[in-house]
Specification:
With 223 residues, the chain is mainly β. The protein is 3% helix and 35% strand. The chain is globular.
Length: 223
Amino acid sequence: MVEVVPYPLLFRFAFPIRRSDVIPKSGKRLLDLGPEFALPDISELQSARPTGEFRIAWNDEGVGFSVMVREKQNEPEADERMPTQGDGLQVWLDTRNTQSIHRASRYCHHFCFSPVGGGLNGEKPFGLQLPIAQAREAAPLAAKGSLLVNAEMLDDGYRLEAWLRRDQLQGFDPVADREAGTPTRLGFFFVIRDSELGDQTLSVDDRFPFAYDPSLWGTLELN
C-alpha cells in the first residue's frame, strides 16, 4: 500500500516534560537524567527503529537534553565545521510555540550537538547554534563555545548531554509565565543523526521542511 500521508503528519504531538532543579551538575555527568525523563518514542508510526533514546528536563534556568545511542560498530564521526552533517543531535525550539507559522520567528532556535568533532584535534564534543533558513526574523545566536555539552563514549555508542541556559533561549521565561498563570509550552523538534544507524526524528522525516517550518514541530509542556 502506498503511503500518501505519513502517519506522524496526522497528529499534533504534545509531551509533558518533567522539571529537575538539580541540573546542570558540576560532576562527570552534566545532567544524569533517569529513565523517567525519557521522551516517548513514536518511531513505530514511521515503521522505523529508534536510533537512540532521548531524555529531557527543565527548570527556571534552562532546558537540558540527553541522548544515548547504542549498538554501533563504529565510532561516531562529526566535524564542527559542518555541524549538521555529522553524527549527533539537532534540536529546534520555539519559545512561543506558534504552531501556525511556516517561517521561523525570532523565538525559534536551531542547535547542533555532537560527541566528537570539536577542539583542536576533533576529539571533543561541541555545541553550536545556527541560523534558521528563510526565517522572518533572526534569533540572537549563542556565542561559539558558550553552550554546555558533555559526551561519554561507550563500548557500542555514546551518551551526549547538553544544557541551554535561559538567556540562550529568546523568550524563555517560565517564572513570568507562572506569575501570569500561563503554562510554559515550547515548540520542539529533534533529529538524532547517525551515519551508521540512520536518522531518527521526532515525527516527519526529511521529505518535509522541518528544519525551517515550525508548523511541523511538536510541543513540550513544561510541568
